[in-house]
Amino acid sequence: LSILLSLLAPAYPMKSPDSGGILTPSGLSYFAEVSKPHAETILRQDLMAPTDAEVFLGSPEPSSKSQITSVTVSDLSLVIIPHSGLRLSIDVDITASPAPSNTKELRLAIVADLQVEMNSAGDLELVTSACKPTLKEKQSSEEVESKSSSKELDKEINVNKICLEVSKLLLWPNEGLMSLTTPFPITPSCLVQYLPLAAPVFSEQGITLSLQTTFQVAGMEIPLPVNPMPFSVPEPVSSSSSHLTLAFSEQFYTNFFFALEVSGAFNMTIPSQTTTNAMAEKITQMSSLFQEDLPVIMQAVFRSSAQVTLVESKAALKLFFTIQIGAGSPDFQTILTVNVDVSSRLHLSVIDTRMKIAVGAIEDVEISLATSDVGPVPADLLEELFLPAIREEVPAQVNVVLSDGAPLPHVFGFTYKDASVVIHKDYVLVPCNLELELK
């Protein structure tokens, strides 16, 4: 395998994007909703921990130091700033007790601008470009900013420290972004990885991220051909009610099958439903090759890469096999070698975070003789002897290989629901909603 991959490496230059997705404003609102209890937990830890009391609260006199008794996030929102990034707004209600007989109600408002950047390692990072905290007493209409001259409220809470780590108040900061690029298994020896090509683009339609897919077989990355048609994530024609729309080019599916082919997953053994004696009745030269009646076996390998074609509402798959037909075990003796091309529908669906891929019944098949040790064999006789088994076994065995499907790009801790698959010419869209997995 390593020799094969080294031979392939010079043949394929860097490839272009073949997949991606758009996180819609609706999806961003869902992230904000599920981040709210997380933000409240983090703020409570920061503000109410006894070890932090002297940092966040109190006066110079130890006997009169304040204590925060409650922290509640009343509102958390995320909105897109087109061509720039995100704006995070958080309103926090705080109850503090400067003295046993006195309770103070405070409102902390945090407004932060966030950007998603790509670092030198190729990972996406969420960074804070601006943060403005505002603190006020609920009983007063006067707002007091973090740099206010009001020393009394300035001592109540160190809002600037919160701004230093404001992105941690979200449920999906950098750890989640990095999990997007984790290699996911297709088979025990084949992995898929989605790599961002650049920082995402922020627009009114959503956050668009273009990805290129890489595949690893036995720990080595497979060189893949360049997408013949430049691919970019299609913009929605109208505002979408779905949280997220994933997009996959025709090339993505071709690459997926190529990776499985290189891994040897499609090499298969097919029982022919005939024997050497039965074949000898139709091909007289067979009688001199085998002294006993043996089951005839077909050993199939890909002779060229699978072709996936996407048109409106339909995905088609064409497979190209070379099949050695023979008998004997453990010493297999080849009788015939045939080339077989099969065409069928490709069925796509989504379950959780995987795209399920299945091959339908063979709709078209071509068989031709490549080599023969028993003289010429007419095409109609090849079809009579071998096509029934090919029609039955090839889809069944290919579907066993495809049974786990293709992992979709996703952030750990979230799954997809209400997903649909919409096939267009040259690409597939998967509108879906996000769902936080409960631990």
TrEMBL record:
Annotated GO MF terms:
lipid binding
Regions annotated as coiled coil: none
Per the record, the domain of life is: Eukaryota
SMART domains recorded: BPI2
What residues does the Lipid-binding serum glycoprotein C-terminal domain cover? 238-432
Q: What is this protein called?
A: TENP protein
InterPro entries in alphabetical order: Bactericidal_perm-incr_a/b_dom, BPI_fold-BPI/LBP, Lipid-bd_serum_glycop_C
A Pfam family assignment: LBP_BPI_CETP_C
